[in-house]
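Input record (one chain):
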Amino acid sequence: MKTVTKARILNALGLFNIVRSVSYQRDLSNPGILNFYKNFIKKDSLCFDVGANIGRVTDVLLHLGARVIAVEPNPECVRYLRSKYRLNKRVIVVSGALDAVVGRKKLYL
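The corresponding structure, as predicted from the sequence alone:
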């Protein structure tokens, strides 16, 4: 039996990108999140968003003027991130994961 994810259902209904865009906007409109990151991130900082998912943290970092390397293992999220940031030269999207040990692991979604 094939597992159907929420993302696939939303995508089939044509609602996937709408739901994502609404959910990630919460972070940029939350002054607490912006104020937290302002303490650490300066203009032109190089930041890594490890486990970037749909780019919520990447959006905040970009808003603060940083350059971002977004690392994400989920192929669906990678496609979304590449589409979302395709024209933004301050973002590099890397398909993969980070670990202390070199090797391959199974991704459970």
